[in-house]
């Protein structure tokens, strides 16, 4: 498996984990932390730690995802530049493309009404 393929698999896994962590959270305070009995102003130790863990894991996964995307871009650029320079360097001959020649035996004439004969 290529380096880019490994990065691609890691990006998909981290993106899936990030979606799961975000879906567990609730912006109104009714996510995973409220299901453990945490009230509005009254927070137990475990509930507060769950909220902190979800917040830190969201930022960590987002950072890891960004770094993996940047690293995968570097691997694409390094492998793509070698192929591009080989082609530009003249190792391969380019064949000229010829334009099709129109057939002069059947000319199309137009009437004054715009119809073809």
Automatic annotation (TrEMBL):
<keyword id="KW-0813">Transport</keyword>
<protein>
    <recommendedName>
        <fullName>Protein-export membrane protein SecG</fullName>
    </recommendedName>
</protein>
<keyword id="KW-0653">Protein transport</keyword>
<feature type="transmembrane region" description="Helical">
    <location>
        <begin position="58"/>
        <end position="76"/>
    </location>
</feature>
<keyword id="KW-1003">Cell membrane</keyword>
<comment type="function">
    <text>Involved in protein export. Participates in an early event of protein translocation.</text>
</comment>
<keyword id="KW-0472">Membrane</keyword>
<keyword id="KW-1133">Transmembrane helix</keyword>
<feature type="transmembrane region" description="Helical">
    <location>
        <begin position="6"/>
        <end position="24"/>
    </location>
</feature>
<keyword id="KW-0811">Translocation</keyword>
<feature type="region of interest" description="Disordered">
    <location>
        <begin position="87"/>
        <end position="117"/>
    </location>
</feature>
<dbReference type="Pfam" id="PF03840">
    <property type="entry name" value="SecG"/>
</dbReference>
<feature type="compositionally biased region" description="Low complexity">
    <location>
        <begin position="106"/>
        <end position="117"/>
    </location>
</feature>
<comment type="similarity">
    <text>Belongs to the SecG family.</text>
</comment>
<dbReference type="InterPro" id="IPR004692">
    <property type="entry name" value="SecG"/>
</dbReference>
<keyword id="KW-0812">Transmembrane</keyword>
